[in-house]
Predict the 3D structure of the following.
Amino acid sequence: MKKLINRNSVVFLLVSFLCSLVHAQTSKKDMEQMIDQQFKLAASQYKILEKNVPDSMMPKTVNKNTGKVESSNTKWWCSGFFPGSLLYIYEHTNDQDVLKIAQKRLAIQEKEKHYTGNHDLGFMMYCSFGNAYRLFKKPADKATIDTAAASLTTRYRPQIKSIQSWNKNQNFNCPVIIDNMMNLELLLWVSQNGGDQRFREVAINHANSTLANHYRPDHSAFHVLDYTLETGKFIGKNHQGFNDASAWARGQAWGFYGFTMMYRFVKDEKYLQQARDIAQFLLNHPNMPTDKIPYWDFNAPNIPNALRDASAASIIASGLLELSRYTKGKESSNYVDAAKQIIVKLASDEYLAKPGDNGGFLLKHGVGFFNANSEVDQPLTYGDYYFLEAMHRYKEWILK
Ligand code: GLY
């Protein structure tokens, strides 16, 4: 009898193991096919988008009333996402027409390496030229990135060990916003690649100030800290969130991605712990929907009828895939599973535009600035960019 049980258990375990292997292989194959298909679709969509944007401008969103694509000039914080997305698409399709469009758009973006009007240089110049240099290693592109990093550091304020995000305005004295964690990648990369070592120091100081001041005990972050330079005192606010006590979803996503990226460059355990803590906040929050596409604010008043933000979901998916590389076992595979779930959901009809629709953008249902009724439930360039990046990472890191 004992022998029989033992034999049955072994057979059962073996069959289960083989089934899970087949399942893993099948879903691996499915993901591979799905991602390849997404990049092909993205190539045709972005050729449409290109036609909808004047040569000297970059795409922004689709106007709700007219259905037409709205453009911005190259100083807009999102200007780097279009060329960056085109480069990811080219990388995965080898479509030479997409590359030509990317080069044309990089050419109009290059002048912004001197821009010092706000903190967004990382988004503008690293998502664009960082990808160009990663792919083609042209010295001129590296020089562009180096100059952009120098421009960004002009906004460093040693009194508060932080980079000032926006200039003083009617709402803020010296605002530092959580989004700025993303721009530190530009500084760290330049320092790591032969550039000025002070840029790394600025990035570390900024991240440490953010860790100390921006985060609440539950590991959610304010959107804005408004500092008084003379005293170093600050007030936490939520410019783009629902209210000052709420957790604006994209802000949480920026911080999560930012601290994961900090660990990549600096290998300081406190950044890794911060990224894990934020992942816990995001993935286990009672208001996180089961499909893991967050509401635009975790404390939006009309949950479960509040709008979802596809852009926050894309950023979280991409960040989770990076965090999975710095963690082990079940914890790591949970991050991959969550990222996969988000990618698959975003690639479904609910979020992905039908071919030819959406002005050429990929994703629908992004929430730009809810309180200002600006870009609400619309396509957003950064939603597309981090969706493409998440699929790129999934393909390179998980499927290979
Ligand atoms: N302020 C940049 C954003 O909307 O995420």
In short: Confidence is low (pLDDT under 50) at residues 18-23.
